[in-house]
Amino acid sequence: MAGWLSPNTPMLIELNNIHKVYRVGVERIAALAGVSLAIRANEYIAVMGPSGSGKSTLMNVIGCLDRPTAGDYRLEGRLTREMNAAQLAHVRNEKIGFVFQSFELMPRLSALRNVALPLLYSRAGWRKRQHLAMEAVQRVGLGDRYKHRPNQLSGGQKQRVAIARALVNQPSLLLADEPTGNLDSKTGTEILQLFDELHAGGQTIMVVTHDPNVARRAKRVIRMLDGLVHSDLPSDEDAAKFGAQVVSAGGDGP
Ligand SMILES: Nc1ncnc2c1ncn2[C@@H]1O[C@H](COP(=O)(O)OP(=O)(O)O)[C@@H](O)[C@H]1O
Ligand SMILES: [Mg+2]
Q1: What is the pTM of this model?
Q2: What is the CA(99)–ligand 1 centre distance, in A?
Q3: Please, are residues 34 and 17 in contact by the beta-carbon 8 Å criterion?
């Protein structure tokens, strides 16, 4: 399955001329200045580009955390502009799994209860939620740490908990914004191996990164510049075109 994409694979995400303008006082900042792109099921995409180029804004729009100022966004064929706030929240919970650089875990809850949080909005009963959360915890290799609280876990383990939480609803799309940014390079590589496994299992993944190693693992690399898609290439072509430049820019690990 991995690495092979039929042109008949259904379109998961379709962005058509998306703009996102922020107003700060009298100033208007075009964080996205007309982005069009399409993502099919089981793609593995790295999003790169300098700070301020619009990567996080793009992820937030795709993840329905933020509405575009203009343009059409279709998620699984449905026009998000036509959804009200409750419908958007529902779609976000059911279809999108988010992973952030800073993990964003609830400090007083165990790993298992953190992972179970998105299930609170589902109709599943307590026992079913417990079961699904445990499955997700095991999937990320933390079956023996499920009772631990975040402060009893290493950075890599915390990020695994966050990934399990993102996966617990079996989302159509996993969005990760610089997921290895707070991890040392060895731990970061372990997280990337987990992404590889998830992709091989059919998961669609979009990951923002400064790390050329991530871009090399992904199948497609989108480079942002000044709120626009600067290039969008299969990862081998991207490496041939930008490789040397990227390596000299360095990774984002501490
Ligand atoms: N909430 C916000 N309010 C005002 N400006 C913002 C906001 N979020 C992002 N921006 C601006 O939009 C641009 C793109 O930001 P962002 O998407 O965070 O870039 P990146 O993730 O590539 O660093 C930047 O100029 C940033 O300052
Ligand atoms: Mg960002």
Answers
A1: 0.90
A2: 18
A3: yes
